[in-house]
Structure prediction request, 120 residues.
Amino acid sequence: MAIVSTSKPESEAPRGVRTRVLVADDHEIVREGLRMILSEEHETIEVVGEAVDGEEAVRLVERLRPDVVLMDVMMPRLDGIVATERIRATGSTTRVLIFSPHGRTMSASSTPSERARSGT
Prediction:
């Protein structure tokens, strides 16, 4: 699984503050696995929602205002790169971490033609 961050790292959150996370992936088993892993950090991380595609992720970011989205790059209806671009265009302060179980590394700043050539 390749992981590409689209944001700069921030300093640690103050004690008692939980990071609100939205998980976006079209595979239920992946969402369940991420939720399970993240729930082990229940004192510092709260999974506030799950999206099955990029369109739902954009809507949920607007409604839930998570601190972070864990976004699959390859999803139906709207891929993770375009969904991230739409989230950023709204002025949201939500950070997006894009991941791919497909073994290809790609930057969120890649152009559409670069994404097409890479097959992602």
About this structure: Residues 1-11 have pLDDT under 50 and may be disordered. Strands lie at 2-5, 19-24, 45-51, 68-72, 95-100.
